[in-house]
């Protein structure tokens, strides 16, 4: 029997599945991490087929293919499990823990071992994160049945934001109803923010508890976070991941009354056949989650294409400029909440890590608040630069720095799993 020493980390995003497999026995490598990467896989475009699949054993070359057979997170994960044995000769029985990113944890503020009760809790919260919790559930189910000896642990994206004070997390509504129904700002992308906080702390050689950061996680779903003394003080998503910044298919914040005017059927229940589970969301929520954002504005969820076309195409320009405008709303207000004492503005997520154009524009606009200038050469060379954190500001800046962080939610979970008490 081969040694049981593997941790599988699964990140079900709104339209992607990112999976990493780690070893837990140290054999050199990065002494700072308790786990070592063995392989990564990602399946993107799940909701806009054909899905793109990639599978890469560490140090090897990536196997990439388009999959017409994959149309949801369950079939995407089944394809990965198949590849694990076929392509990498990994015996699933060696996996001791499977870590699952669950976007909405409600009142769960720590990771939990998934038993019947925890599974039902995650299921109940599906209505509040329709693009996410519903996608995690079939993947969790498959793990429980296909890797039965491994412990399945849920890590919640909302947990990082438990530190947000009541006057920031509460909505101005009847507080009795708010408390009864759990209507408050939860915030998401927390695994990413934990990873970024730790990585920036290491990069700046300052304790995490001393750091004030404004972090932008700009991916298919996008959010901003105001971190004071190493804790979340505010974030742009709310009760659900719909509000705040616009995303690939999400509207971001709108006047709540808009939903009553968008269509005359907006208040009815949605009966979308494509949903992974029966969701209790209204048609308006469904439209604002899935038929809005970049796709509605510019006809594509690919922000690289929007960036490339923005000079010649009005729709692409509107999407690009709108994103920058909404980002500045949060950066400006978080700067003020931190009293101007900001160690760094950090860009992350697929767009934040790759769009030098957006970083240059935001960097230029925040110059008036005393941020260091974007160094054009460093900003343009991020893709070819190694390291988790890359400095794109002028050399010598000690505060109000501009950084890029390659976030890794799977590593954050595997790390917490190994160092925790599971
Ligand atoms: N070169 C690029 N320039 C701008 N955006 C990019 C680039 N490459 C990828 N992206 C965008 O990154 C986003 C995906 O980010 P990611 O954080 O991986 O998303 P998620 O995990 O939420 O599925 C997509 O909207 C994609 O268009
Ligand atoms: C919370 C959220 O929006 O996640 P993602 O960006 O992975 O869709
Ligand atoms: Mg993501």
UniProtKB/TrEMBL annotation:
Pfam families: Acetate_kinase. One of its GO terms (molecular function) is acetate kinase activity. It catalyses: acetate + ATP = acetyl phosphate + ADP. It is an enzyme of class 2 (transferase). Mg(2+) binds at residues 11, 409. The active site is at residue 157. Pathway: Metabolic intermediate biosynthesis; acetyl-CoA biosynthesis; acetyl-CoA from acetate: step 1/2. Keywords: ATP-binding, Kinase, Magnesium, Metal-binding, Nucleotide-binding, Transferase. The keyword Kinase applies. The record marks 189, 250 as: Transition state stabilizer. ATP binds at residues 18, 217-221. Substrate binds at residue 101. Its EC number is 2.7.2.1. Its cofactor is Mg(2+). GO terms for biological process: acetate metabolic process; acetyl-CoA biosynthetic process. InterPro entries: Ac/propionate_kinase, Aliphatic_acid_kin_short-chain, Aliphatic_acid_kinase_CS, ATPase_NBD. Signal peptide: none annotated. Belongs to the acetokinase family. This is Probable acetate kinase. The lineage of its organism: Eukaryota, Fungi, Dikarya, Basidiomycota, Agaricomycotina.
């Amino acid at each position: 029997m081969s040694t049981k020493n593997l941790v599988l980390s699964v990140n079900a995003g709104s339209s992607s599945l990112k999976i990493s497999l780690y070893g837990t026995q140290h054999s050199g490598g990065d002494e700072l991490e308790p786990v070592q990467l063995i392989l990564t896989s990602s399946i993107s475009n799940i909701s806009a087929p054909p899905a793109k699949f990639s599978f890469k054993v560490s140090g090897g070359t990536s196997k990439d293919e388009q999959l017409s057979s994959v149309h949801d997170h369950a079939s995407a994960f089944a394809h990965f499990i198949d590849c694990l044995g076929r392509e990498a000769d990994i015996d699933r029985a060696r996996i001791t823990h499977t870590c699952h990113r669950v976007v909405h944890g409600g009142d769960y503020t720590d990771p939990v071992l998934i038993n019947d009760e925890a599974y039902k809790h995650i299921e109940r919260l599906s209505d509040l994160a329709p693009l996410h919790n519903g996608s995690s559930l079939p993947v969790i189910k498959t793990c429980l049945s296909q890797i039965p000896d491994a412990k399945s642990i849920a890590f919640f994206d909302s947990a990082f934001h438990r530190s947000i004070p009541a006057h920031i997390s509460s909505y101005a509504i009847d507080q009795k109803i708010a408390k009864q129904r759990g209507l408050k700002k939860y915030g998401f992308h927390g695994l990413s923010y934990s990873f970024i906080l730790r990585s920036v702390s290491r990069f700046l050689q300052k304790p995490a508890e001393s750091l004030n950061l404004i972090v932008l996680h700009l991916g298919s779903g996008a959010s901003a976070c105001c971190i004071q003394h190493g804790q979340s003080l505010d974030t742009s998503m709310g009760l659900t991941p719909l509000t705040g910044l616009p995303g690939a298919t999400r509207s971001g914040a709108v006047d709540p009354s808009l939903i009553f005017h968008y269509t005359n059927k907006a208040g009815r229940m949605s009966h979308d056949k494509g949903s992974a589970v029966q969701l209790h969301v209204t048609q308006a929520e469904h439209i604002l989650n899935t038929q809005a954002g970049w796709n509605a504005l510019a006809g594509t969820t690919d922000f690289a294409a929007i960036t490339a076309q923005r000079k010649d195409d009005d729709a692409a320009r509107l999407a690009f400029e709108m994103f920058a405008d909404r980002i500045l709303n949060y950066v400006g207000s978080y700067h003020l909440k931190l009293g101007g004492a900001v160690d760094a503005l950090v860009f992350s997520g697929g767009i934040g890590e790759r769009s030098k154009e957006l970083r240059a524009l935001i960097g230029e606009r925040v110059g008036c608040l005393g941020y260091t200038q974007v160094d054009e050469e460093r900003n343009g060379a991020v893709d070819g630069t190694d390291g988790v954190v890359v400095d794109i500001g002028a050399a010598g800046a000690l505060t109000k720095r501009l950084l890029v962080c390659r976030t890794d939610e799977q590593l954050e979970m595997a790390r917490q799993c190994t160092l925790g008490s599971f």
